[in-house]
């Protein structure tokens, strides 16, 4: 009987992303891993509730044996079994990011999907969370890229919720087969539109007005944003108070969604400025893949035949995700700076 070598990972340099990438690669390839120093350089080291939700979700889809899956644990061993296609429901238990839990399990689950089979995952938690993709990014930016790689996924948001609450619902549905295809994403084509939505629920209207003022006064020309392209949305479907600014940049190649979520001690003007700064930097970079999409593409690409994309300078998340792929496959992700952006070359497993 052949014993599969356990991959050793040092989690000190990364946050939750290094763990999610390892969970996805491990479940998809059937290779166990051991991670130590989980989030070792963060103010609160170890596993938080949202990280635990990712671990438990990944374990559920492949019947993994797990040790160290507890709050604040800085060490974890994950020994996967065979991925079982089916319908799954996971509850984070807080307003933690539903999108990040899906990131940990969707590639592995869909890779196992055969003709005639269906899979679905429903995650309860937050759909608008600081430092995590908003649902609109998942739907409008990531989903089309996954479809191009042969992942037949559709994301829906039956119930939105801010991070302060725990009642948001996001669902992934897919019908087989998985038909892997390398991704080539080097051009973005011409700009079609730029628009913004200010989500302002159960808060004074002046919050949204202050944000709109920043967008138009400080970024209108830079973004090419017009008054009628800014929408104020009170969204009565969201029961709790919350605020977010979302900016869409639509090119021939697809839409990139940038967002910033209002939170304590962050002024409304800062919420708008952060989202607008990132959008403007992307528009000026003349690359098809924004910095927030970089790391989201790497694992699905590796499992679907690899490929290339052009982006801005690789983020820390992208670099740690690349290290995980190399640890599992022995093949490096190449990152080469060029005259216009960086060319990222992802190997196939």
UniProtKB/TrEMBL annotation:
Name the keywords, alphabetized. Answer: Ligase, Nucleotide-binding
Instruction: Enumerate the Gene Ontology biological process terms.
Output: RNA processing
Which chemical reaction does it catalyze?
A: a 3'-end 3'-phospho-ribonucleotide-RNA + ATP = a 3'-end 2',3'-cyclophospho-ribonucleotide-RNA + AMP + diphosphate
Where does the record place the RNA 3'-terminal phosphate cyclase domain?
Answer: 13-331
- The residues covered by the RNA 3'-terminal phosphate cyclase insert domain are 187-278
Per the UniProt entry, the Enzyme Commission number(s) are 6.5.1.4
Entry keyword Nucleotide-binding: yes
Q: Kindly list the GO molecular function terms attached to this UniProt entry.
A: nucleotide binding; RNA-3'-phosphate cyclase activity
Answer whether the UniProt record assigns the keyword Flavoprotein to this protein. no
Looking up SUPFAM superfamilies in the UniProt record yields: EPT/RTPC-like (SSF55205), RNA 3'-terminal phosphate cyclase, RPTC, insert domain (SSF52913)
What PANTHER family does its record include? Answer: RNA 3' TERMINAL PHOSPHATE CYCLASE, RNA 3'-TERMINAL PHOSPHATE CYCLASE
Family that this chain belongs to: Belongs to the RNA 3'-terminal cyclase family. Type 1 subfamily.
Q: Give the NCBIfam families listed for this entry.
A: RNA_3prim_cycl (TIGR03399)
Q: What protein is this chain from?
A: RNA 3'-terminal phosphate cyclase
Q: What species was this sequence derived from?
A: Mesosutterella multiformis
Provide the organism lineage as a comma list. Answer: Bacteria, Pseudomonadati, Pseudomonadota, Betaproteobacteria, Burkholderiales
